[in-house]
Design goal:
The protein is mostly beta strands. It has one helix and 16 strands.
Amino acid sequence: MVKVIASSLRKGNVVEQDGNLHIILTAENVHPGKGNSITNVNMRRMSDGVKVVGRWRTVEMVEKADVDEREYDYLYSDAEGHHFMEPVSFEQITVTDDVIGEQKAYLTDGMKVYLKTFEGNAVAMELPQKVTAEIVETEPVVKGQTASSSYKPAVLNNGLKVMVPPHIGVGTRIVILTEDNSYVERAKD
């Protein structure tokens, strides 16, 4: 364990509080107009999965656990969980749904992700910033319509719903941001 300043906490960090280890789900630094700045975090207790809210002054010191972060290749999912392989040692790890959460819609065969592990157990997953997917359902393209400020809903081959420009049709491969499911551009492949 190492002590760090509370304002440096980020999603995926593991901290020790009240004798228990917690994985940080969200962290936000709040600077009110008057008074001390504070760091609000939502975290999950690793022993039983209970979600907890933490609050520290931004200058307070917090116990942070040493987490191993490595690149893994996604293999497949089954009843046990989601299976990943470390490309150098070929060591495989199984990650449960509660760690992956809603990010499982993005997983595709061979995708490279970063897994954060603590004592051999996966605690968080970081996806690539952008992924490519194909549109399977959307409103038809209207001739002569170009990219404008009005967007229309579309369903992707991974089941996610995104808003796309009106000139994008079914079968088009697009690039989306994994952070907020927003359209970036047409895929160049």
